[in-house]
Amino acid sequence: MASITKEEKNGRTYYRLRVVVGGKVHRINLGFGHSQRALGKILEHASDLEALHKLGEKPDIRLMSELNEKYSTELLDKLSMIGLIAKPAPKLEKFLTDFIDSKSDVGEHTLYKLNNTKRLFLGFFGDARIGAISSGDVADYRQARLKDVVQNTLDAELKHGKQFFNYAVQKGFIAENPFGPFEIGQQVNESRRKTLDSLMLTDIVARTTDKQWQVFLAVVRWTGCRQSEALLLKWSDIDWDKSRIRMPSPKTKNFDKPFRDVPLFPELYPYLLEASENAPDGSVYVVDGIVKPGQRSGRLGKNMGKPFQSLIKQLGYEPWGKPFQNIRVTRENELIREQHPAHVVQAWIGHSAKIQRGHYLEVTDDDFTKALNRPGGQIVAGKSKQPDAEKCNELEKPAKTRALHNPAPLRDDSQKGLAPRDDAQRNFSGFFPPRSFLGKMRDFSTDTPTEN
Question: What is the CATH number of domain 92-170?
Fold first, then answer.
């Protein structure tokens, strides 16, 4: 039977837990300064664990979660060493490191983001036992981070937190995910998404004097690819005969989609042709000289934005946020408005229908202009055309009244193999009279004389 003894050491009182495991007595030093309530809880848990061990059973996940939350790493390790519990939940740093190291199916950029979230979590929670992190701790993290970042950035971090701790639940380290109660938005920052002026983008490409920058911007502008994809594009990826580009796609290569086929658009063709004619013998990549070797993908290629914004200023335009992402947004909206099917545009740009709807498609001023200038809805001198007053009055008449005043046009039944209608039928062809009236019509029929 588990028990706790009180002993004196150097004039101070400390406590020792006594448990029996497999007929053997074990004593665990609990240290100094415990309240009677805390000691009572330790004794309760120790007795439960002792009883479960005698029955040959293991503590369930909820009991393990409670132990991980309440007790120190040292105490849990001692309980594990004598066989009362399985190996306790790991500390946060080791758990996150092991989890991220196991993600061999994600790209370099995703790994960067996971490691960044790991750094933020360790900075806030410390290297705590993962079972000791509660939903309340996550709420505190959320409030603290909102002082420094926008909601979308925080949502991305919380999404990673759910991913991390869902794995901890699956491994049996904890019973519930402390990130579970927190709703996560779609991470769509519409304030930074912008459909750019197409003529401006074309002008920027045409007036760029650095030929490497020019071909790089032309590829991004007309294919709508990601900047890392443009930097990874090789001359061998271009099929001049079929006018197609096999665009490398590092983001989806782990999903058996290492590339996608994109048209060699007519606007892009002259830029690629000039670059190919001027490329040194043995050149591999279409874009060369503006990035260092080994810096073509992932976070290593992220520094393209600053020099591009400087170039935009030099050409007399105002730089915009997320420069390459918004070029991609613009190109996708152009292709949709050119009446290419949505699934085709998704394949060319390289994402799903859900991502297209949430992150790329936009309602622009051109959409409003097109709607207001459709047939029957033109804007004239600031006012929409109104139907004639006579037509309005006509539309307000009851249906039967309109029929009487405007009988239906005569039809030629002989073309359909029907007998021509007589004059009486023609007079009433514009409406349907009531049955009683039709009955009286028989008295006026010229085909069958009535009897006097």
Answer: 1.10.150
